Amino acid sequence: MKSRSHCLYAVALTLAALSGCIEKTDTSQPDDALFCDNIADHVQSVEQLHVASDTTAVNTIVSNKHIEHDPTYAMWFSVMDYADILRDKSAEEFRTIMGERFDNAANMGINTVYLHVRAYQDAYYCSTLFPMGSYANADLDFDPLEIMIEEAHIRNLSVHAWINPLRGPGTKAMEAMEEKYQVKQWYSNADTNGTYLVLVNSYWWLNPAYPEVRQFTAEGVAEIVERYDIDGIHMDDFFYPTTDDTFDEAAFAASNETDRSVFRQIQCNEMVSLIYDTVKNYDSSLVVSISPQGTMQGNDNQYADVSTWGSTEGYCDVLIPQIYYGFENEFAPFTDMVALWNTIISCDKVDFVVGICTYKLGCEDTWAGSGCQEWIENLDIPERQVSFLMTLDNVDGIAIYDYDTTFQPESATEAMAQEVIAITNLLRNKS
To answer: What's the rounded Cα separation, in Å, for the pair 100 and 104?
Structure first.
């Protein structure tokens, strides 16, 4: 681990390198074929996990100091948990908590962790580009990401930094942000407030239609890969937050394009490609992954061009569609969606990892139509999904969302504990 005791050292590295709804309930994220028009009020988190269908042996590969596992079994650690485990904690208290969590994950068979480090144009690491996130103390005197990397690597866990490139904070947090940060400067500038930065419902969002914005997202990624011994960069599914024409009215008019949907997909592709190139130019062995919506309608509403990302080299190394649906989902049944995504991800340089969830266990699945009671009536869905996916030669992995709802569920507590045992047996090839 490189020494990062002082932010001044990090500043020097950056200057040298750069030229330039919080509750975790299924009612907070309409994630099936009826995906809503605006997603800004629906905060969802993801993680990813690779499972090989033809082998149960785990091979550890150390390439240029980076840890990779084949197959990969991973778990997302969401920013929404940080208020309880980070705020008002000392460095040693935080280290102990994360060590226990990583132990739980590793004992389950997890070998890769996706750590939420930027959710709202903030940072849970020592940054010169973003303020410390609100789930930590503003005067925090230690680096959370450095501790998490150290504790994860001690346990031979591969570490990937999970970011939301475009989503920003609410107005209250934006007003409180210091002027030294680029996002606040765009907010304070009459020319960029409403163009580079746009208010959608209760959050401010960066608009990828501007080269300066896309470059800024890439600089944010460069800051992470250059300062920390991570093994990859992971992007969540928050791209365009709305289908409303007013979001990018000026940029679209200036483009002389005639199809707004195509225009927005192009801007998204430009941003994703730039982030990918930024990571790979620094270290080609780092993994870039994206976890898009599970349905095509959901991705269309966010202008996420998953067909291109899955069929063309240069956007990501791994696609992890959030197939957070039961087998009986009326609009997007699990097995059908897995089959659909298998046709979408056709590039041999892009792995197909299936995202599943544990947060729905014991809860009504509001957008599942006639299958809305499935997660209440069947308390073994995650286990059955893992078992099914491990039989498929065309699936490169499984993603489980997330640590908190797996190990500290608010519903179906006993059933989830049994699911942990069952999934552990599957991941470790035990009967």
So the answer is: 6
